[in-house]
Design a protein that fits this description.
The chain is an alpha/beta fold. It is built from 6 helices and 10 strands. Helix 1 packs across helix 5 (about 195-210). The radius of gyration is 18 Å and the shape is globular.
């Protein structure tokens, strides 16, 4: 039985596309960023990725219907720039074996659309409140750094590993001759969804990809999240039962 499969609804017609991946992970930064791009461009649904390695539950939609967990493929045609092929989704694999298998299938999509470049997006958990999140970057080659830095990302960080598809896809892409970049938004690690980090990564990607997106839908969510973080910070400062007020668990997961 095939445990991971791609279901195409139509053929790609994107020209010289940049492939962009963003799946659920810490702070849901990757998924939120890439979903926002898909929702605010003329993105066309192309297909989906299904896997038995995804978590065993169904998603309940706003209208109270259910959908299977999947990763969704879109393409965006642009007259004056390279087209985009987008992969966004609400889940990653649950096991190391599953991560590798799903990453290989996604590389098949990269090959199928004849991508010219790879971009992966994720979050980097710091385990503490981040007032002004930075966007960290990792690339497959030195020559990409100047363009990435000019877009607003930084290579001045201590990231040692990239967990999940965002890392595996970038590494496999390099092995297969693709140039690629991973953009990582700093996030506390204890927020289910981090709109502030999402917005900062979006700003960088807008510059890098020559996009112009309306951020109005994010503004209210950013304000709400900052209020939550302020309350958490106040609680930590008043917590005399711990030496530092920081949770013991390791929140440096990237994905």
């Amino acid at each position: 039985m095939e445990t991971t499969r791609i279901e195409y609804e139509k053929e790609f017609d994107a020209e010289n596309p940049i492939f962009i991946e963003g799946l659920a992970g810490i702070g849901h930064v990757g998924r939120n960023v890439v979903s926002y791009i898909a929702d605010h461009t003329d993105a066309e649904h192309v297909g989906s990725v299904h896997s038995h390695h995804f978590p065993p539950f169904a998603m309940v939609e706003d209208d109270k219907t259910v959908e299977t967990i999947k990763n969704t493929i879109y393409q965006v045609s642009r007259d004056d720039n390279r087209d985009l092929v987008i992969l966004e989704g609400n889940a990653q694999a649950s096991t190391p074996q599953g991560h590798h298998e799903v990453a290989e299938k996604i590389m098949d999509i990269v090959d199928d659309c004849d991508a010219s470049e790879l971009i992966t997006v994720g979050g980097y958990g710091q385990g503490d409140v981040i007032e002004d999140p930075s966007v960290f970057s990792v690339t497959t080659s030195e020559k990409q750094k100047e363009e990435v830095e000019s877009a607003g990302a930084t290579f001045d960080h201590d990231v040692g590993q990239i967990v999940g598809v965002s890392g595996l896809l970038l590494a496999r892409g390099k092995e297969n001759g693709y140039e690629g970049t991973c953009f990582l938004g700093e996030t506390p690690g204890f927020l289910l969804s981090d709109p502030k980090s999402t917005e900062e990564v979006l700003k960088v990607l807008e510059q890098y990809l020559d996009l112009d997106l309306d951020h109005s839908e994010l503004d209210e969510k950013v304000e709400e999240s900052q209020q939550v973080l302020e309350k958490i910070q106040n609680l930590k400062q008043s917590d005399s039962g711990r030496e530092d007020g920081v949770p013991d668990s390791d929140l440096g997961y990237i994905g």
